[in-house]
Specification:
By secondary structure, this protein is α+β, with helices and mostly antiparallel strands. It has a domain of 59 residues. Helices cover 24% and strands 11% of the residues. The strands form two sheets. The chain has a two-stranded antiparallel ribbon. A hairpin with a 5-residue loop joins β3 and β4. The longest helix has 11 residues. The chain is elongated, with a radius of gyration of 27 Å.
Length: 98
């Protein structure tokens, strides 16, 4: 994601986010920009992935991403939509010829 500033300078937002993902966020919650929970001294207490997994365990009605299965295992998908019957539409010219 590269953006151009009002002054015409190129800004690579992905690079900027990666550079600062371990910087403590400015908020009343002790987390870094990535979402990891921080303890005293700014050390990571809980990684973002653990926080997300804990949330979905405590909130069973929340919609979680499907769990990935082993390679080669069958993946269950939604049933196909019912088939729609095709209809032919006659043009004005075709109706006058009949």
């Amino acid at each position: 994601m590269s953006y151009r500033s009002f002054q015409g300078k190129e800004i690579d937002m992905e690079k900027l986010m990666r550079q600062h993902e371990l910087t403590q966020a400015v908020s009343n919650k002790k987390v870094n920009a990535r979402g990891d929970e921080l303890g005293s001294g700014g050390e990571i207490v809980k990684r973002r992935e653990e926080v997300i997994a804990e949330y979905y365990e405590n909130n069973p009605k929340a919609v979680a991403k499907p769990k990935t299965s082993a390679p080669g295992a069958a993946v269950q998908t939604e049933p196909p939509a019912p088939a729609v019957k095709e209809q032919t539409v006659k043009t004005k010219k075709q109706t006058t010829e009949e």
